[in-house]
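Q: Can I see a sequence and its folded structure?
A: Here is a first one.
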Amino acid sequence: MHYRRLGRSGLKVSEISLGAWVTFGSQIDENIASDLIHTAYEAGVNFFDNADVYANGQAEIVMGKAIKDLPREALVISSKVFAPTMPGPNGRGLSRKHITESINASLKRLDLDYVDLYFCHRFDPDTPLEEVVYTMTHLIEQGKILYWGTSEWTASQISQAFGVARQYNLIPPTMEQPQYSMLNRKRMDDEIVPIAKEFGLGLTTFSPLYFGILTGKYNEGIPEGSRATLENMAWMKENLTPDKLNLVRELGEIAADLGITQAQLAIAWVLRRKVVSSVITGATKLSQLEDNLAAADMLPLLTNDILVHIDEILSFNMEE
C-alpha cells in the first residue's frame, strides 16, 4: 500500500480507503464489516470513511465495534455532518448547534474521543460561512476533530471558506470529498482539481466504480442482491442506459487486454491524478475488497497510449 499526503497537510492516508456508505449497517452484517475492515487494515489501509447519516447512524456503530481492537493511532477515521439526523428544524444543516450535537453523537456511536477527518457533507445556504468555519475551528481546538473539510462543495464555496478563515484567523478546510469516476468526471476535472491545487486541498474521492456500473456487473441486466435492487438506490436504474453500458463494455475490452478487472481499471484511472489523496472504495465481500486493493498495483499499466484510448471512449459520455 502506498500513502499520499492529505493535500498540504502532514497527514498521510492510504491511496485506497474503505468506506461505509450503503454497506455498513444495512447491506452487510457486523461480522462481514469487521472482516472487511481488518483485512483492509492488514493490507495497509489506514483511512476508513463514514458519515452520521449512513444507515441512520448504524454504520458508525458497526465501524466503532470493528476497530475496537485496532491501534487508534494507526487509523484515520472520518465522519460527516449536514443531513437530517435529529428532530426539529435544527436537526440538519451546518449551524453551530447541529454541528456540535452531531459530532458528539458521532463520537458516541464510534466510541472514539476524536475523529481525524470531519466533513461538511454538503453546503448549507442557510448558515453563514463564518459560523461554519468558526465552529469547525472550535472543534479542532477542543480536540474532537483533527482536520475539517467539505464534500460536494463548489469551487466558489470552497474559496469563500478560505477567505473567511483568512479574514478571521480561523482554520480553513484541509480536504474536499467529491464524486469522481470515468462516468462522472467533468466537475472534478474542470472545477475541483484547479481549486484543490490552488489551496492545497486533499481530495478523497468517492464512487470510483460509479455505484458498481463500471465493474461491468450490470452489462447483462441487474443481478439479484446488487445495489440497484436496494430500495434507496432505485435511481441507479435510470443510469443503466444503453449508451453507458456500451461504454462500459468498451472499457471492459481495455481491462481484458491489460489482464486486469474492470474495477481495477476504474480505480487505477482515478489514482492516476496525483491531486487525489485517496480513493474511497466500498465492498460487500472480501473478494471485492481484495480486487479493489490490487488496483493500485495496476497504475503502471496505464500508459499514455492507454489513457488516450480511454479518453477517446469517455469523450462520448456527457455525464456532468
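Q: Show me another, different protein.
A: A second, unrelated one:
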Amino acid sequence: MRSFSDVYGRSPEVRSQAPGRVNLLGEHTDYNDGFVLPTTIPQLTRIELAKSRDGRFKFYSANLDESVVYAEGEEVPEGFARYVFGCIEVLKQRGHRITPVEIHIRSDVPMGGGLSSSAALEVAVLRALREAFAIQLDDVELAKLAQQAEIEYAGVRCGILDQMATSLGDSKHMLFLDTRTLERKLLPLPSGTELVVIDSGIARTLATSGYNERRAQCEEAARLLGVKALRDVTDPMRADKLPPPLDRRARHVITENARVLRAAQGVSAKEFGELMNASHASLRDDYEVSVEGLDRLVELLQKQPDVLGARLTGAGFGGACVALVKEGHGASVKQSVLTQYAELGFKGEALV
C-alpha cells in the first residue's frame, strides 16, 4: 500500500482514525426515531491530511489505489470521494473556511460488510478536518455532520446510528442510544460472553439496495397510523391495520424497539441471545432484508452449542452476521462455522 509520503511527497500534518461498528440489536430503527444498541469493532479507518500547496483537493484511497483531484467548483467523481467531499461541504455550510487539503485514506473496516465503513470514513475525515482547521465541534455534532454528509452527498437516507456509534462508542461497552433525543449511556456486554463477527462474503451497496425503499415504507406506515414516527407505536397489533407490506415493515420496527429496551434493562446472556435470534427472524420475515447466504450463516451460528444468539448486522441485503458466544469459545465457533459455510458454497471471513 502506498503511504502518504509515496503519494504526496511529504509527511502529513494531521492524523485521525475512527472504528467500524457492529449493531447488536436495533436494526432499521434509527431512522424511525427508535432505539439502538451498537458497539465498536477493532477495525479502523485511518486518515492522514495536509493542507494543499497548489490549491487543489486531493484524495487517495490506499485500499482502492485510486486518486481524485479537483479544484473548487469542479464536479467530484462518484465513489469514495463523495463521502470525503460531503464532509468538507457540510463544514462549509456551517460557515467554516476549509481550504484545499491532501488526504490519504487507509481502512481495514470491510466495505459492503454492514460494519459502517462509510461512517468510519466520515467520522475520521471530520476528526482530521476539526484538528487541521481548529474547529470547535463536539463528538455529537460531528456525528450529526457525518450523517448529513452521507444523506446529502452519498445519497443514502441513513439514520444516526452508525455515526453516533463510531463517534462515541467503544469496544468494551454497548452504546444504548435513543435516536430521537440522542440520550445515551454505555452499558456492559452480557456477562461471560464475547462477540463473533463473520462477513458473509456477500457485499451490498445501500444506495442501490432496498434501504431507501424501506425507509419510505416506514414513513408511509407512520403517516397511516397517525404518528410522527414508528417509534411512537408500542403495540405490534396496530401494524395489522396496515396494507402489506407496510404491516410487516411496521411490525419489525415496533418489535425491534421493544427488544432493544428489554436488553437495555440488563437481561441474562441467555435472554440477550434469544432477543438476537428473534431480531434476525423479524429482519428476515417482516423487514425482508436478509438474503440466502446471510440466513445460512446465521443458522449455522445458532446451531453451535456455545452460541447464545446470532443475527445479521447492518442494513442487510448482504454484509456481516454477529453472534453472542460463551466466553472463551469464539475461536472454535468461527472455525467450525466457516468450514460448514464453505461446504455450502459460500466464502466467509471472520472479522472479530
